[in-house]
Amino acid sequence: MSAEPSPAPPAAPAAGEIGLVEARDFHCRLPFTFDSGQTLPGFTLRYETYGELNPTRDNTVLICHALSGDHHCAGMHAGDRKPGWWNNLIGPGKAVDTRRFFVVCANVLGGCVGSTGPSSPNPETGHPYGVAFPFVTIRDMVRSQKLLLEHLGVASLAAVIGGSMGGMQVLQWGIEYPHFTKRMLAMATTGRESAQAIAFNEVGRQAIMQDPAWNRGDYPREGGPRVGLAIARMMAHITYLSDASMDRKFGRRKKDTADRSGNGFDVQFEVESYLRHQGQSFINRFDANSYLYITRALDQFDLAAAYGSLEQAFAPVLGETLVLGFTSDWLFPPEQNRAVALALLRAGKRASYAELDTDLGHDSFLLESPELYDLVRGFLQRSEKQVSDFSI
Amino acid sequence: MSAEPSPAPPAAPAAGEIGLVEARDFHCRLPFTFDSGQTLPGFTLRYETYGELNPTRDNTVLICHALSGDHHCAGMHAGDRKPGWWNNLIGPGKAVDTRRFFVVCANVLGGCVGSTGPSSPNPETGHPYGVAFPFVTIRDMVRSQKLLLEHLGVASLAAVIGGSMGGMQVLQWGIEYPHFTKRMLAMATTGRESAQAIAFNEVGRQAIMQDPAWNRGDYPREGGPRVGLAIARMMAHITYLSDASMDRKFGRRKKDTADRSGNGFDVQFEVESYLRHQGQSFINRFDANSYLYITRALDQFDLAAAYGSLEQAFAPVLGETLVLGFTSDWLFPPEQNRAVALALLRAGKRASYAELDTDLGHDSFLLESPELYDLVRGFLQRSEKQVSDFSI
Q1: Residue A257, number of CB atoms within 10 A of its CB
Q2: Which residues lie below 8 Å from residue A199, measured CB to CB, with a gap of 6+?
Q3: Of the residues A68, A329, A363, A369, which is catalytic?
Q4: For A333, B79, B181, B389, which has the most beta carbons within 10 A of its beta carbon?
């Protein structure tokens, strides 16, 4: 927890906190064939782990991140002021209890935070792959994570947990590796995006690709379509919130610096300032080509189309599933979450659906919520006995 | 109606249709002082009229257009294939019956379809005003329309009708010119935008202003930030529809031309193709600086802030008001429409609210709806007697 420039050794983590963590890299030296048929000679996944793998190697909880997330989901990096993005959920004594579980989280294939993606150097040219990078699917992400877990000696997953795009990975895990996946916890997700969600992603892609600095995906690491990426992020960020939460957080409050006459096109409202900050901070941590690839993976994800129907998609599932929807989520609304759980039930699987009454929009799964924590804790604490026919 | 390249005279309009119409220009030669305090030596409003002004000069219906609309709301322009944008509502025997009413519609001040706006030449420089144009408010739009109506010899308005930004003008008419305004019909509107609506407008403005071709508002008439304006329009267009209507219209259907592997960042889904078309056609008819000015007018419109409260804002109103909300409108949702009607009622005014159950989103007010037509017709047919104390 200590990031002071002091010579003293780091203090012990506060009670309930993981403390300092470090990322590691998994280098897979075997060729990897993507769903598109394209192949890479190998790949890297950057990941973090918290807790210890037990002797039976079956206490792993895999965390899957969303579009703009990464592998750093809990604990502190030395020098940082903020912990990982799901630190409220993960830690000793927390809903995902690191005293009991071995927690793993990896930056997705196609990402830009240490894992191989379009900003990685193409060994054939020495330059970033750019749009020569193979197209990535949710299933590609899941298959690469499986190789990481094998490398770590994991025998099976006690649970796989994720929200939004992370939830899509959760569902794909249950389908792809049924004997490996005991519990699936998917939040704020969908079996396939609606036209509206595709439309927002497409406007973001157009903002990036129409930025002259995109240059057909060929740009230097520190350059690129920063304007287009910021616009894409500003817009997408609105879809992660809700009308009600934005009104509570910002309302129509003016910035102190705003010209009181209301003239000019500089920042007038606090919500404008907030969005501009979101856009600016994003371009310093995210690669525009990764944004294109990952939003395409989101849009192309369609379990019903891929397997004939949602029920057929879930036919192989052996574990049990908890789907959590959030009432104010208008990007992947409750109906879409409920539809996933209903299809699992129709397919004869153990599945539950719970809907949390929040007004925080799509990002509700990331936010402080004792109700959410209790549901996660309860789902993970169901005894092995209760899921014992899992391995039959 | 005839747009054939034939030497024959135009055919008589079809029954129920207005037929050929032409726009005219009103040149106001008097100085106009904007709410900002800035002044122009005069201005032009481009407008159309349908029907005839009656001898008592009190049968005028003023139509107020929305952000991207214009003065051509009904009838056909020679050579055009499509009629004006509200032709389904306005015409002989239609809900706004041109056999009875003298219908007037003008392009707003600050607009770019013939009325004076930032793309008009600045007489001092000979170049377009650009961002030297005075800032425009909804009240400025209304006050300039009043000068047009006086020019046309209109003694009072039988009704003022508009949706979205047009609805804001309707409310401002009732407040600003109570003795002139018998009936106000405001659809899909609000007394002030929420933070979310401001946020979407701000992303659109940023897309325009961050486009290098914007050049701080100084660009040639045929050039300008076409990329940024197209992005702004694509995004805004999503907010005018609904998740349900987009799913019905496009769903996840792929374009025939799409690479079936789902790879590539070219158009894959029909909804993408539709949005790109919306963006491209918009940049050929709209000026980017006008988009900045008019969205700022929308964001700054706040009757409660301007007058102390919504009830106080409505204190001067003499006419009666019908507010129409649409269940699937998530840009100016039903609650915001209802709040307007409730404030009028609390202020002791004659006001009604009706909510139409549609799944077409914000743009519902523009679409075919016999239920909507009946409500408009009924509101306009209420006898003079019923509103007789209007002039007291």
Answers
A1: 9
A2: B234, B238, B246, B271, B272, B275
A3: A329
A4: B181
Residue A271: which CATH number?
Answer: 1.10.1740.110
pLDDT at B137 over 90: yes
- Give yes or no: residues A217 and A99 share one domain: no
- Find the helix or strand (DSSP H, E) in which A209 lies: helix A195-209
Q: pTM, whole model, 2 decimals?
A: 0.93
CA A289, A295, A296, A301 dihedral sign is positive
Q: Is residue A376 part of a domain?
A: yes
Is A365 in contact with A164 (CB distance < 8 Å)?
Answer: yes
Q: Looking at the structure, tell me whether residues A128 and A174 fall in a common domain.
A: yes
Taking only the tens place, the pLDDT of each residue in B241-280 is: 999 999 999 999 998 766 555 557 888 999 999 999 999 9
Tell which of B294, B318, B339 closes a domain. Answer: B294
Question: Between A207, A262, A276, which is nearest B231 by CB?
Answer: A207
Q: Do B211 and B103 reside in the same domain of the chain?
A: no
What is the tens place of the pLDDT at every residue in A295-336? 999 999 999 999 999 999 999 999 999 999 999 999 999 999
- Cross-chain residue pair A243–B194, CB shorter than 8 Å: yes
In tens, the pLDDT along B60-71 reads 999 999 999 999
Burial of A363 per CB tally in 10 Å (0-12, 13-18, 19+): buried
With contacts defined as CB-CB under 8 Å, which chain A residues touch B330? 243, 330
For residue A131, give the chain B residue with the closest CA.
B264
Counting residues of chain B whose pLDDT is more than 90, the rounded percentage is 87
- The ipTM assigned to this model is 0.91
Q: CA of A235 to nearest chain B CA: how many angstroms apart? A: 6
Q: Looking at chain A, which residue has its C-alpha nearest residue B239?
A: A196
- pLDDT top residue among B1 and B24: B24
Instruction: Report phi then psi at B64, rounded to 5.
Output: -110, 130
Same domain for A188 and A219? Answer: no
> Domain range spanning residue A280?
200-294
CB contact under 8 A, A296 and B265: yes
Helices marked H in A129-180: 138-151, 165-176
B193 and B322 inside one domain = yes
* The pLDDT value given to residue B67: 98
Q: Note whether B126 and B61 are same-domain residues.
A: yes
- Closest CA of chain B from A353, distance in Å: 22
B77-111 confidence digits (pLDDT tens) = 999 999 999 999 999 999 999 999 999 999 999 99
The answer to whether residues A266 and A364 belong to one domain is: no
Are residue B157 and residue B243 in the same domain, yes or no? no
